[in-house]
Amino acid sequence: MSYILPCCEASCLILASIDRVLVTSPNAGTRRRSTRRLTIISMIVICSFWAIFHIHTLIFIQIVQYGTNYFICTFQPGTYTTFISYYSLVVTGCLPPTLMAIFGCWTVKNIRQIRRVRHNASTRGTGTVVIGTQHTLQSKDQQLIRMLFIDILSYIICKYPGTIMLIYQQITQYANKSDERQQIEQAILELTVFLYFVENSIGCYTNMIASKAFRVELKRILLKLVHYFRF
């Protein structure tokens, strides 16, 4: 689960980024592809893929006993450990932030195009006939985009130090290290692990700050729960 859940989280953020690209597209046909049905199917397929893909961890993990009723799961030394290191570096470290940044920039580009079209339409003189309707972002769409950008930024800030630390470990894995250096690296590693899981716990609070609609909906749900348990 420690491998499946991070991959599913990153994949869902990437899917959300793609959805925002579709929603903000100036092309009406592209916008129509952003549907709830497609989103649900994509999430099910992605999560199922990661669950099946990580079956190898059940096979190549070995359980080591360090004491009475004290067991630790470790990777089999050798090629598999090297594979897991580079796999974590690419799949959960470098690839998700890169894709999020690409789709985030794409969304910003679409938003600027929409604003440019609206500005040009507002500055036209009379006598111009406009066929069709202009695409404008609704307030909820704007808030969702803002929430997504904050989630992506939080993901990069919290997850990337762990990726950098993993790269450092791969580069210096054969270097002779003093005890002091090992202690410093261990302290930094524990800090990056702590920061890695911070992102998973601040999503609700960042969404509350970024979106009024989220605050209203959360308040409605909490009041409904209070009313339900009271009566």
From TrEMBL:
Keyword list, A-Z: G-protein coupled receptor, Membrane, Receptor, Transducer, Transmembrane, Transmembrane helix
Cell location: Membrane
Keyword Transport: no
InterPro entries: GPCR_Rhodpsn (IPR000276), GPCR_Rhodpsn_7TM (IPR017452)
Main location group: membrane
GO molecular function: G protein-coupled receptor activity
Protein name per its UniProtKB record: G-protein coupled receptors family 1 profile domain-containing protein
UniProt keyword Heme, yes or no: no
SUPFAM superfamilies: Family A G protein-coupled receptor-like (SSF81321)
One matching Pfam family: 7tm_1
Residues that span the membrane, as ranges: 40-64, 84-108
Topology of the protein relative to the lipid bilayer: Multi-pass membrane protein
Superkingdom to which the source organism belongs: Eukaryota
G-protein coupled receptors family 1 profile domain boundaries: 1-207
A Gene Ontology term for the protein's cellular component: plasma membrane
Gene3D superfamilies assigned to the protein according to its UniProt record, in alphabetical order: Rhodopsin 7-helix transmembrane proteins
